[in-house]
Q: What sequence folds into this?
């Protein structure tokens, strides 16, 4: 074997090790879209609560009104379902292009790692809503989502871990500044998703397409 | 120089299997087949060969009624694989000089 052959051999082995342990079909484009859904959802939610009918900058409604609360939950759930659906659809498409399946040991590991903090956080947020303590709902969403990303980052691109750390930081900051939940929520689920989606799209997606 | 190479890794698929098992705690048969793009029979024979030299261990479990066979690298296998990589790296370094 000559020098080039040896080096390409070693590289292909390292690449295989990486590919076998990490889910590399995660779509950056789906991150961009998830961020867009979140921003639209946040705008709709903002209109529900603050409205545009009153003058002098007063709110029309408060989150504590039941009708408003139900609408907010419906908006948030729709955003979540659309985001997850898009992520699965686009990742499956990317996996097909790479000649791989979407269901492999790496994706199973990713789901398991993400699942525990995500389900815990989801239940915790539901408990907070049921008990009428809304103040920490937005920070809790960001913190638990961030923890899920840090845990899952081990099974996919490293960037996901970075995104998770930023979500946690944003969540903690949101917890210190009550009343700005919607702004932090939009920053975390909207702006950060779009930003990281673009990074991942240009770093990884385009190579496949 | 080539005589330093491990005989078990002369075959490319065997080396690839060891690489995957070195990077993961365990890996099942079907996932290995999909990842490496080889046929059932081909993969099975290479796995047998690696099992024979005790580089890998086999775990059989039941998922419903189907058997699920997964593989993991033994300590001996991990050491042999690490040594093989080291040999490759050294060879590359020597050629550079």
A:
């Amino acid at each position: 074997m000559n020098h080039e052959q040896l080096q390409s051999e070693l590289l292909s082995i390292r690449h295989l090790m990486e590919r076998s342990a990490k889910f590399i079909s995660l779509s950056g484009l789906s991150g961009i879209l998830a961020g867009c859904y979140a921003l639209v959802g946040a705008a709709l939610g903002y209109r529900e609560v603050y409205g545009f009918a009153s003058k002098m900058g007063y709110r029309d409604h408060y989150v504590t009104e039941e009708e408003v609360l139900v609408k907010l939950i419906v908006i948030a759930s729709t955003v979540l379902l659309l985001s997850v659906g898009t992520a699965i659809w686009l990742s499956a498409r990317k996996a097909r292009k790479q000649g791989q399946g979407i269901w492999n040991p790496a994706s199973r590991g990713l789901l398991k790692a993400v699942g525990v903090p995500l389900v815990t956080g989801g239940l915790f947020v539901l408990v907070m809503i049921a008990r009428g303590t809304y103040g920490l709902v937005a920070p809790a969403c960001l913190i638990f989502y961030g923890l899920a990303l840090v845990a899952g980052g081990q099974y996919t691109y490293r960037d996901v871990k970075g995104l998770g750390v930023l979500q946690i930081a944003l969540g903690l900051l949101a917890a210190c500044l009550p009343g700005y939940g919607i702004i932090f929520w939009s920053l975390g689920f909207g702006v950060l998703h779009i930003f990281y989606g673009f990074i991942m799209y240009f770093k990884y997606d385009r190579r496949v397409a | 120089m080539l005589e330093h190479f491990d005989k078990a890794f002369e075959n490319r698929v065997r080396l690839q299997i060891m690489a995957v098992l070195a990077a993961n705690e365990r890996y099942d048969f079907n996932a290995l087949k999909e990842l490496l793009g080889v046929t059932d029979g081909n993969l099975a024979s290479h796995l047998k060969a690696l099992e024979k030299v005790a580089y890998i261990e086999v775990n059989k479990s039941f998922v419903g009624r189907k058997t699920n066979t997964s593989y993991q690298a033994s300590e001996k296998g991990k050491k042999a694989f690490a040594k093989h990589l080291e040999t490759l790296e050294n060879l590359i370094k020597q050629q550079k000089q």
